[in-house]
Amino acid sequence: MRKHDKELIVVGDRVLVKVEEGEERTNVGLYLPPTAVDNQAVQGGKIVATGPGLPMPSPDSYGADEPWRVPMRETRFVPMQARSGDYALFFRKAAVEITFEGERYHVVPQAAILALVRDEE
Known about the structure:
6-stranded antiparallel beta sheet; 1 helix
């Protein structure tokens, strides 16, 4: 995500979420139970950026006696299920709140996402 002359790069299997303030009904129409809102156990927001996913080990790296002699290949990643523009409902305790260029975001591991809402276009 780029703002002004700086770029925020999300790494690994994490997503960057523009948070939605806790309400009983989210902007995309999901209803949250009062216990979830009161305890702030779950929160939702729009995904603005995603990391590349988890890196996959090279198949040549297993059992190689001299791994430095194995020709290097480009790093491959397990693809992310979440995409930019999705609405994510996630466990709040797993998220880390950050501020970037004056805006508040949460960095959330993909494993902490409970559900995604995606507009089919």
